[in-house]
Amino acid sequence: MHADGYAGFEDLYRSGTIREVACMAHVRRKFVDIHRSQGSPIAKEAIGRIAQLYAVEKEARGSPPDRRGELRRTHAAPVFDDLEQWLAMQLTTISGKSPLAGSIRHALTRMNRLRPYLNHGILELDNNTAERGMRALAHGPKNYLFVGSEAGGKAAAIAYTLIETAKLNAVDPNAWVADTLARIPDYKITKVNDLLPWRSNR
Q: Does pTM surpass 0.85?
């Protein structure tokens, strides 16, 4: 599960059935904040090293998962390993009570949870795509009071998932919903999966 470092998620990971894949964007953000407020050269270098990982992602974007994994193992893994070692070394050179030290410790605790993305092409370096998809929900809680029950919440989750999936597959969600609602009453129940947005050519 791609996630930020929210402590409330820890219960999900304890059983071992769900494994966390941490978010590099959240790690980077702490260094950006420190560099903006203090002009820290260590924070600046951390940002630069992280940028090298994103450069690999830019090259890998759009490739099949096996190719993405290959590019990451070849080009990103050495940068990732160096970053982890470099951060640990920097921690020994600064005050342990400084905000920068806190950011470095946070990064180091996330590195092991970030590492799975290097070997699995279906994973991402961050969870920005999911956060962008959820932004509308976070910004309009009063608009969603109609959900009203657990069943309503499940129905809303299905609707949001289908709409965001349509967007990810370059399908116009408005056109897809209108077309699907028009076709579904007369569609064979055994073929209804053919209407899902990732199978649509519209």
A: no
